[in-house]
Write a structure and sequence with these properties.
Blueprint (H helix, E strand, L loop, with lengths): L1 H18 L5 E11 L4 H6 L9 E12 L2 E16 L2 E19 L2 E17 L3 E2 L6 E13 L2 E10 L4 E5 L6 E5 L3 E10 L1
């Protein structure tokens, strides 16, 4: 799976860099993620009490090919955090969304596409996480963006397609269970075309 992910990354970055000379360009992006790992609605209702409890971040590269109708491949390092009963589950992953977008009115665009994800590391406070079923998974991104020449802001929703669970093993081995690591998040990004 690692080799497949690396091939995917090369397949995204190389064409983006090649077409960047004639199309919209290549750039950097970063921002905040509000994550829930499988229980988004329940988690969002708790946000008013502790607004920073499930906030993570991301940083990466993107290419934009086209103008009115465009292709936007990205490669992003993401760190997410989800609080469960006063403990935090943290995940580090590489995301590779391949988005198709449409400029609909002035600077406003809409986009959607698959996101290929490779889990680098997971951590749950005071509890050992057994092997997560799959390091590689696929999700869906869709959202809206505002683009002003070389600067853009977008808000998107990401959801994993299939359950991807890890086994929780407590220090006393008696308290164990399963944790859904499937991404379920809102992502706010600032992007700059170089």
């Amino acid at each position: 799976m690692k080799n497949l992910f690396l091939i995917l990354v090369v397949a995204i970055v190389v064409p983006s860099a090649a077409f960047a000379q004639t199309a919209s360009g290549i750039g950097i992006k970063g921002g905040l993620n509000y994550n829930a790992n499988g229980k988004y609605v329940e988690s969002a209702t708790q946000a008013s009490k502790n607004p920073d409890r499930n906030v993570g971040y991301h940083i990466g590269l993107f290419g934009k090919i086209g103008d009115k109708l465009y292709l936007r491949p990205e490669i992003i390092y993401t760190k997410t955090k989800s609080d469960y009963d006063n403990d935090s589950f943290e995940m580090q992953k590489l995301d590779a969304p391949i988005l198709v977008g449409l400029n609909i009115l002035g600077p406003v665009s809409v986009f959607a596409g698959p996101s290929f994800q490779y889990i680098l590391d997971t951590e749950y406070e005071d509890i050992t996480i057994g092997d997560i079923k799959e390091d590689f998974s696929v999700g869906l991104n869709f959202g809206v963006g505002l683009n002003f020449k070389k600067v853009g802001i977008d808000l998107r929703y990401e959801r994993g397609f299939s359950k991807n669970e890890g086994t929780l093993i407590g220090n006393d081995v008696i308290n164990s269970g399963r944790l859904d690591t499937r991404p379920d998040q809102l992502i706010l990004s600032l992007a700059i075309i170089l």
